[in-house]
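User: Can you model how manganese (II) ion sits in this protein?
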Amino acid sequence: MAEFLFPPPPPAALPVIGQQARFPVNRIFCVGRNYAAHAAEMGSEVDREAPFYFLKSAHAVRQSGATLAYPPGTRDLHHEIELVVALGAPAFRIGAGQAMAAVWGYGSGLDMTRRDLQAAAKDKRRPWDLGKNFEGAAVLSALTPARDFAPAAQRIHLQVNGTVRQEARISDMVWSIPELIADLSHYYHLAPGDLIMTGTPAGVGAVGAGDRLQGGVEGLAEVVLAIDPAE
Ligand code: MN
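Assistant: Here's the modeled complex, given as structure tokens:
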């Protein structure tokens, strides 16, 4: 047995619909600007040449049902509801035609964003990490195995305190699930446990202490999040 200087952190893991075993989370790849209407509301256009990505650490994961203290360092915390793709097999330099074989399942997720910090980073041509990768920035539902869900034109939606803020169809995505997996596989040795957050539709906006977020993709488990006052 390897000896460690101090106990390594427990792995992040997600519940699975219909079975006891949990899905251990490895890397979290996030797709930028994958719905044209959201790119437009952010003052950008979709890059039709290639998708682009940022990553979140597994330390950012919270399970659906969590309560998150309003995060430090921001005055503009935003919600982004997204379809999450969970990989269960390795993939390296594959084509889109082979990509779906690597999919283990699907879930609903919130890409929580410190929008003010992301905007400042964009202005200064700096990385987005402070805006996107922080504790509680990836709130994820239980996963549904791929045999029980076929991505098509399901509704994706988010309510804040019962009011609909985001609503679209996952068929509105610019880059499809197999295109994203194939593209990522040319930059990484994709592995079981990797997640892909596939981008958010239009309607992102601010949330604050006392708000309750509820959303997801039709046919998958919902993601729910409550926001508490800042620590
Ligand atoms: Mn996002």
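A couple of observations from the model: The longest strand covers residues 103-111. The mean pLDDT is 97.
User: Helpful, thanks.
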